[in-house]
Amino acid sequence: TWKWVVGPMFLYLCERLVRFWRSQQKVVITKVVIHPFKTIELQMMKKGFKMEVGQYIFVKCPAVSKLEWHPFTLTSAPEEDYFSIHVRIVGDWTEGLFNACGCDKQEFQEAWKLPKIAVDGPFGTASEDVFRYETVMLVGAGIGVTPFASVLKSVWYKYCHDATNLKLKKIYFYWLCRDTHAFEWFADLLQSLEAQMQERNNADFLSYNIYLTGWDETQATHFAVHHEEEKDVITGLKQKTLYGRPNWENEFKTIAGKHPGSRIGVFLCGPEGLADTLNKQSISNSEADPRGVHFIFNKENF
């Protein structure tokens, strides 16, 4: 038995030693941004830190807990000179981090008063393959939109610096939210991308649809009254917020009709039930002919 146990135990101990070594490397919090609905953004720097789009890190804050590590998706782009995460305050640990960063105080916080942070990572995900396709479908559910913040930022940087060598030509972005709380910080990014793409006369590069799935009759009435306004009353975007859930069969057929003979990457960050639905649609809408359209499904579940 010991021959089978020694190998895995040795690898486990090596992994723990590597994590301990990483946790001792200095991480500097350069900025803390408070977003609406108790969401904070931590911008950090670490010597030798290199990332790709959609990756995640483990974070430990000794001031809150000396043993707990929590995973967070990176929301910054590799082209930026810092890396960032967005933290929604939904539990004891995140509440402790919120208070440790001084976000519960009104006065300005000096940088030296911010808590020490340990970072392990980054670790890879399926979202890294986005730039291998000419056409992609990005589907985020709720807080699952965070990896696509990194993707969309990186796309914009690449598009501005060298658009001719960018293989990615078309993005279909779907965001499903139960309520409006998650709209605040990400809508700002979409507004910026929307305005910049229009300035460059390439508004068709990014097509996005935002679905509010947890709506009630009051919200629906308000939506109907303001539907004719130039910008959406919830997000401030030109694309109107849709109510209910998408008809995925129609969406896949429409995209397949617009891009015949293409390999289309489908990327999801969301629950397992939605993953099953998108996987089935990817298979059923892919043609048997190798020269036909093919949907390649990639997922991250939470």
TrEMBL record:
UniProt cofactor(s): FAD
Lineage start: Eukaryota, Metazoa, Chordata, Craniata, Vertebrata
Role this protein plays: Catalytic subunit of the phagocyte NADPH oxidase complex that mediates the transfer of electrons from cytosolic NADPH to O2 to produce the superoxide anion (O2(-)). In the activated complex, electrons are first transferred from NADPH to flavin adenine dinucleotide (FAD) and subsequently transferred via two heme molecules to molecular oxygen, producing superoxide through an outer-sphere reaction.
CDD domains in UniProt: NOX_Duox_like_FAD_NADP
GO cellular component, one term: NADPH oxidase complex
Organism: Regulus satrapa (Golden-crowned kinglet)
Coiled coil (residue ranges): none
Gene Ontology MF term list: metal ion binding; superoxide-generating NAD(P)H oxidase activity
Annotated gene: Cybb
PROSITE patterns listed in its UniProt record: FAD_FR
GO biological process: defense response; monoatomic ion transmembrane transport; superoxide anion generation
Location relative to the cell: Cell membrane
The protein's name: NADPH oxidase 2
